[in-house]
């Protein structure tokens, strides 16, 4: 009751803000904040597998405030999941303040107590972050220090336990990271050096009690990483290697094998041309602050998926999720701008992006030693297995035809190992061909029409799909869209139309969208971390605001 | 615990309410560290444009409307600079998955912007960015005078109007 009485005026007040961003001062400092409310009303719909929801309507909400005054800042975030929306981890159920902090920052030294987000290198041994769309938050509650004694030397330390829904993980996480930018450090002597060198190293250790009746588990598990970046003009090269001592967990079947991870990337960039190459090898490198943690809870590190992050509905139908137990993957991308005035480029030029990525299972040999040393398996660095996890070959072309008409064309050929990625059995590798045509027509200064036509051909899984979005934008503030996704390739009787409408109002930093219709089940991913969203049918409301 | 929660909520409601009674105190740019495309660490407090307007646009390589907005501005950037002296700063929130692709993308599109990577999203949090695209306009005193959380086709024209007003020392909208 108290919550309602206080929160509603606070939220209403939040909406009274103009886009002018006029702000208060309390003792000379400033207050900033943001709100987000997502809600949905659920109709049961057996035809699409949308379950009956006992509460009928569910909502997730966030409100964050930060106070800054000179060297000092403090903030908190209130969250409410009453009850948790479909597709998010039900363990979020409840409400509270899972995030609050105080920071003192005097440029060289920054000290934070409370919750913090940070990352060492590319995150192979440590990354804490928040992603509301994923229902992901692994902030560290404890201490964080960032210290830069000289220009070019950056030291960081974190010490605490991790957020796990509205409680904390059982383990303690301690980490230290150092980075040296040689060119900044030896600014006088290296000014003539055209090549830049950045070196870094990290160590992260977690502690958790051993209460296992059978196994003798390591109480402290340490992971260390080293990295280098070399940058010379148009070329960037960077590499990070990480190693972890034996870390038996539920996710790896309680084996005592050491883990390793390698991430390498090289890029070349000049006006009109960008090339990037990346490769990685991950071997038994899941890292969580609680041995039995499941889902996306209590992850300490971040293993990025090296695949294109598709934004079109059907191209994102089969997204890749990183396999922490082991994978070998690579990616190549070439982005080229065809010049204006050439036969292909026409009046405005044309952008072409080619992307290829693949991930495979490493070449492993099972040791069958679970009754003995439990090392599990050995893996080879020089070969890979013939078990494909994921493959994507795609080309995207963007062309402006006139001041009023622009279009994007995409073709993608995606292969998807549903058994491994979704933990299913008896599926073949799903092979798909996807084509997208997305045309924007600016009818006049007030009215824009966007037509997005998509098709996915496949003989596997649920068969082929066709999809369309017609989106109308009126002026700067209103839009509405009609979407239909049609599973026409499914077996007779299951060929469902997923029809939905959406309308929105955007002004300054306030955004309100209202939707109604059917949503297909799907996998929603950011950066290789995914969540499954079940099918639904009903009204949805989303509000975001910031000041 | 319940009491603490209620008290914090009360405090939150109070500061929120107080927040909207004040007048002309414009938001200042927060000071956090971000990285250049060459891996150098810089502070957002060091952003400067000699008293002329600055546009800060948060984007990501996976965000289609963000790229549309920045590509649309890129076509007109030279004219805008000549007219208003504006500087555009594009802040990528890409993480380790896509951060290495930022520089090749930016170069392939021949953007003339200052581009930074906010890999740990410290700047995004400090600016209260819920989702991208989110674009801010700063006046010559480095105060936030206008912002928008969407890009619609032709939205760069509205942005141009705002910049032109700010450059003349007028209030947008």
Please provide a written account of the structure.
The complex is a heterodimer of chains A (547) and B (173). With 547 residues, chain A is mostly beta strands. Chain A has helices at 2-15, 182-185, 418-422; strands at residues 25-26, 29-41, 57-69, 72-81, 94-105, 109-116, 130-131, 136-137, 140-147, 153-164, 167-168, 172-181, 195-207, 220-232, 235-244, 259-270, 273-283, 326-338, 350-366, 377-400, 405-416, 430-444, 447-457, 465-474, 478-486, 497-507, 510-519, 522-526, 529-533, 536-546. In chain A, the strands form 3 sheets. Chain A has a 24-stranded antiparallel barrel. In chain A, strands 7-8 form a two-stranded antiparallel sheet. In chain A, strands 28-29 form a two-stranded antiparallel sheet. The model of chain A is unreliable at 1-21 (pLDDT under 50). Helices cover 37% and strands 21% of the residues of chain B. In chain B, helix 2 (64-84) links the parallel strand 4 (54-59) and strand 5. Chain B is globular and about 40 Å long.
CATH topology label of chain B: Glutaredoxin
Largest sheet of chain A: 24 strands, antiparallel, barrel
Element string of chain B (H = helix, E = strand): HEEEEHEHEHEEH
Structural class of chain A: mainly beta
């Amino acid at each position: 009751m108290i919550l309602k009485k206080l929160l509603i005026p606070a939220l209403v007040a939040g909406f009274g803000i103009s886009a002018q961003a006029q702000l208060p001062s309390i003792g000379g400092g400033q207050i900033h904040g943001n709100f987000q409310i997502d809600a949905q009303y659920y109709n049961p719909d057996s035809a699409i597998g949308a379950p009956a929801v006992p509460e009928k309507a569910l909502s997730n909400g966030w409100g964050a405030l930060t106070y800054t005054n000179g060297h000092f800042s403090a903030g908190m975030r209130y969250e409410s999941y009453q009850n948790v929306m479909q597709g998010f981890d039900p363990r979020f159920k409840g409400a509270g303040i899972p995030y609050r902090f105080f920071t003192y920052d005097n440029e060289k030294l920054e000290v934070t107590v409370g919750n913090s987000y940070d990352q060492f290198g590319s995150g192979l041994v440590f990354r804490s972050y928040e992603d509301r769309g994923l229902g992901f938050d692994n902030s560290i509650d404890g201490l964080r220090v960032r210290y830069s004694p000289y220009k070019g030397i950056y030291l960081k330390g974190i010490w605490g336990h991790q957020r796990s829904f509205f409680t904390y993980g059982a383990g303690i996480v301690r980490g230290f990271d150092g980075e040296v930018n040689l060119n900044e450090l030896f600014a006088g002597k290296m000014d003539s050096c055209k090549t830049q060198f950045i070196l870094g190293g990290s160590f992260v250790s977690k502690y958790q009690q051993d209460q296992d009746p059978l196994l003798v588990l390591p109480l402290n598990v340490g992971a260390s990483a080293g990295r280098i970046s070399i940058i010379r003009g148009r070329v960037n090269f960077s590499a990070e290697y990480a190693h972890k001592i034996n870390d038996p967990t539920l996710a790896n079947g309680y084996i005592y094998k050491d883990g390793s991870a390698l991430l390498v990337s090289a890029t070349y960039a000049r006006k009109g041309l960008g090339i990037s190459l990346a490769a990685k090898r991950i071997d038994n490198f899941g890292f969580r602050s609680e041995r039995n943690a499941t889902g996306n809870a209590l992850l300490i590190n971040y293993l990025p998926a090296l695949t294109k992050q598709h934004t079109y509905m059907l191209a994102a139908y089969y997204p890749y999720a990183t396999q922490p137990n082991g994978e070998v993957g690579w990616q190549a991308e070439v982005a080229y701008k065809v010049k204006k005035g050439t036969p292909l480029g026409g009046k405005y030029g044309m952008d072409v992006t080619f992307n290829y990525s693949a991930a495979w299972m490493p070449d492993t040999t099972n040791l069958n030693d679970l009754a003995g040393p439990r090392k599990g398996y050995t893996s080879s660095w020089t070969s890979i297995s013939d078990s494909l996890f994921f493959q994507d070959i795609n080309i995207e072309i963007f062309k402006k035809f006139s001041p009023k008409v622009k279009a994007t064309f995409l073709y993608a050929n995606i292969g998807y190992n549903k058994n491994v990625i979704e933990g299913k059995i008896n599926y073949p590798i799903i092979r798909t061909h996807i084509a997208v045509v997305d045309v924007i027509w600016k009818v006049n200064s007030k009215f824009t029409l966007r037509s997005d036509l998509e098709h996915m051909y496949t003989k596997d899984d649920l068969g082929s799909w066709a999809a369309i979005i017609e989106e109308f934008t009126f002026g700067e503030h209103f839009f509405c869209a009609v979407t239909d996704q049609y599973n026409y390739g499914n077996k007779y009787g299951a060929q469902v139309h997923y029809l939905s409408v959406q309308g929105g109002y955007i002004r300054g930093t306030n955004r309100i969208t209202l939707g109604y219709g059917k949503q297909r089940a799907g996998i929603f991913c950011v950066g290789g971390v995914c969540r499954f969203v079940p099918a639904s049918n009903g009204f949805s409301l989303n509000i975001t605001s910031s000041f | 615990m319940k009491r603490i929660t209620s008290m914090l909520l009360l405090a939150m409601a109070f500061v929120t309410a107080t927040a909207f009674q004040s007048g002309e105190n414009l938001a200042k740019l927060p000071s956090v560290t971000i990285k250049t495309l060459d891996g150098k660490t810089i502070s957002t407090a060091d952003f400067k444009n000699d008293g002329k307007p600055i546009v800060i646009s948060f984007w990501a390589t996976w965000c289609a409307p963000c790229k549309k907005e920045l590509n649309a501005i890129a076509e007109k950037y030279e004219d805008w600079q000549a007219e208003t002296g504006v500087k555009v700063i594009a802040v990528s929130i890409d993480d380790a998955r896509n951060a290495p692709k930022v520089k090749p993308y930016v170069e392939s599109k021949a953007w003339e912007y200052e581009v930074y990577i906010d890999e740990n999203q410290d700047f995004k949090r400090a600016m209260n960015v819920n989702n991208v695209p989110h674009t801010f306009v700063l006046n010559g005193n480095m105060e936030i005078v206008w912002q928008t959380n969407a890009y619609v086709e032709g939205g760069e024209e509205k942005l141009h109007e705002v910049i032109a007003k700010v450059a003349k020392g007028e209030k947008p909208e």
